[in-house]
Write a structure and sequence with these properties.
The chain is 14% helix and 54% strand. By secondary structure, the protein is mostly beta strands. It has one domain (10-241): monomeric porin ompg (Porin, Beta Barrel). The protein has a twelve-stranded antiparallel barrel. A hairpin with a 4-residue loop joins strand 10 (160-170) and strand 11 (175-186). It is globular and about 45 Å long.
């Protein structure tokens, strides 16, 4: 069942999203507390922060970090953060993603990850916060299909659906390539939708460090929706997992 919001219903959308996220976080927290939890983290320095084909930092550098607690049952909760730079009037300078969900194997070849992601921008003077339901199916650890839905996509009061198809090609123990193509249906919010693609080369040169270089490209619709932020660009990041 899909939920369509009309203008003026943003409070209702936020209440639904907040209650859903709070309920899932509470459930995940209970699951984590009742089982031994594994804590992991990541950190990265990048020349740009590109999300679904468009820059979130106006092409400037980004510093990012995240932590994740996982239970043997598959339930997990995580938080991830980055600096951002939007339109000056928003005063947006940081993003925090709060995620709660479940991931696990469905069979020898298939795995599933389902989560609620809450995007929060604590430094803004306008309300840019929104929540999205994500699901990713993975086959043989190297191929994936992601589908995401929000009744308040990009904090617009309107629904949006995103889908991404991707593949991973290991070349050696330290080198791999990844490619993905995504499409974002935003007709309700922007009377348009757009497609983007990305190709990454990853070199795990010394544990736990990796160097990732990603070439991004979008269609002309993305440039209309996000002027000066979409298009072709290269994102390079030094990242570590611990």
């Amino acid at each position: 069942m899909s939920l369509h919001l009309f203008p003026g219903q943003r409070v209702s959308a936020q209440v639904i999203a907040t209650r859903s996220l709070a309920g899932l976080v509470l459930f995940a927290g209970t699951a984590l507390s009742s089982h031994a939890a594994t804590v992991s983290g990541s950190a990265a320095i990048a020349n740009d922060y590109v999300w679904r084909g468009s820059s979130q930092t106006q092409g400037d550098a980004a510093v990012q970090a995240g932590f994740k607690a996982s239970a043997e049952s598959g339930w997990y909760a995580s938080v991830w953060g980055s600096n951002v730079e939007f339109a000056p009037e928003t005063h947006a300078s940081s993003e925090l993603d709060f995620i709660a969900g479940w991931s696990g194997g469905l069979s020898d070849d298939w795995a599933l990850d389902v989560n609620l992601t809450h995007y929060r921008y604590p430094s803004t003077t306008v309300d840019l916060n929104w929540t999205e339901l994500n699901s990713t199916v993975t086959w043989k650890q190297n191929y994936w299909l992601q589908v995401a839905y929000s009744p308040d996509a990009l904090a617009t009061d309107e629904r949006g659906v995103y889908a991404q198809l991707g593949a991973r090609l290991p070349v050696s123990d330290s080198v791999r390539f990844e490619a993905a193509v995504g499409h974002y249906w935003l007709e309700d919010a922007y009377n348009d939708s757009y497609t983007h693609g990305q190709l990454s080369g990853i070199w795990a040169f010394k544990a736990p460090f990796e160097l990732r270089v990603t070439a991004h490209a979008t269609d002309s619709a993305a440039k209309r929706i996000f002027p000066d932020l979409a298009g072709s660009r290269v994102e390079a990041a030094l990242q570590a997992s611990f």
